[in-house]
């Protein structure tokens, strides 16, 4: 089985507003996206298809065919459009919010009839470089990811090892004075899209939880010195991503945490899905 990903992009504007609610209630639900004057994004769309390689042409699907489908079904309906007013689905239903989650599902529905059965594997839509949604055709289940950057120092040192062993294993990362990173934490939550709001989880809610549980604890801190979580625990990124999971899970409920990805440097990142 082979998996092929094709990327395209489009520009669109929209707003998120429940018609029967006033400004205060809409802004409480959607934040700045409730601005009735609209806002816009440079969306990036990734479409992943799967299948066996054709014995004659050596391809899963002809990219010319896939590009033509994306042009007629996606770009024609989304590119340089105001989604609330000009999209054939969202314009007819003012209660269907053009959120990243709903757009991802709507694009899936547009593409799947024109592809061989079970060929479409995933639709991923980037609303920005730090916010994207994944849809696998699983009912209303969508995976929403938002990325957060913070800064911290640490020293890799295990209290159960000798100084010589620590130096051998961790090298310059064992520097007694410590070193630091601009960490990037990707928080992926999953759930059914709320029919009323079009959201899996409010981005304001995610931001508030990350602010309280990640930034307040770890941003601009020396992990070994300033944080009780690492008084005796070696602050490797493997340990760090689990600590982050443990502090986020109870505070995100009822939202379900699916995955954390901790980027320590551009060269390496660490994923954790729970125990």
From TrEMBL:
Broad enzyme group: lyase
MF GO annotations: 6-pyruvoyltetrahydropterin synthase activity; metal ion binding
Pfam family, one: PTPS
Associated pathway: Cofactor biosynthesis; tetrahydrobiopterin biosynthesis; tetrahydrobiopterin from 7,8-dihydroneopterin triphosphate: step 1/3
Enzyme nomenclature, EC number: 4.2.3.12
Cofactor(s) required for function per UniProt: Zn(2+)
GO biological processes: tetrahydrobiopterin biosynthetic process
InterPro entries reported for this sequence: 6-PTP_synth/QueD (IPR007115), 6-PTP_synth/QueD_sf (IPR038418), PTPS_Cys_AS (IPR022470)
Highest taxon of the lineage: Eukaryota
Protein keywords: Lyase, Metal-binding, Tetrahydrobiopterin biosynthesis, Zinc
Family: Belongs to the PTPS family.
Protein name, UniProt field: 6-pyruvoyltetrahydropterin synthase
Species of the source: Geodia barretti
Organism taxonomic ancestry: Eukaryota, Metazoa, Porifera, Demospongiae, Heteroscleromorpha
């Amino acid at each position: 089985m082979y998996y092929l990903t094709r990327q395209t992009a489009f520009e669109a504007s929209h707003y998120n507003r429940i018609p029967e609610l006033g400004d205060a209630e809409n802004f409480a639900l959607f934040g700045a996206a409730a601005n009735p004057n609209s806002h816009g994004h440079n969306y990036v769309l990734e479409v992943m298809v799967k299948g066996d390689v054709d014995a004659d042409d050596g391809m899963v699907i002809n990219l010319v065919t896939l590009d033509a489908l994306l042009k007629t079904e996606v770009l024609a309906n989304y590119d340089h459009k105001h989604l609330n007013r000009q999209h054939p689905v969202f314009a007819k239903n003012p209660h269907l919010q053009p959120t990243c989650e709903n757009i991802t599902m709507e694009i899936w529905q547009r593409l799947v009839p024109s592809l061989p059965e079970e060929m479409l594997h995933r639709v991923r839509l980037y609303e920005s470089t730090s916010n994207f949604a994944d849809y696998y055709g699983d009912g209303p289940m969508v995976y929403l990811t938002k990325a957060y950057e913070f800064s911290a120092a640490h020293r890799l040192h295990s209290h159960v090892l000798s100084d010589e062993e620590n130096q051998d294993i961790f090298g310059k990362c064992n520097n007694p004075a410590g070193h630091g990173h601009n960490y990037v934490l990707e928080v992926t939550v999953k759930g059914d899209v709320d029919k009323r709001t079009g959201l899996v989880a409010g981005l304001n809610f995610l931001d508030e939880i990350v602010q309280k549980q990640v930034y307040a604890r770890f941003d601009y801190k020396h992990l070994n010195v300033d944080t009780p979580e690492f008084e005796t625990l070696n602050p490797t990124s493997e340990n760090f991503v689990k600590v982050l999971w443990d502090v986020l899970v109870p505070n995100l409920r009822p939202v379900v945490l699916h995955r954390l990805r901790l980027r320590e440097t551009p060269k390496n990142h660490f994923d954790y899905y729970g125990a």
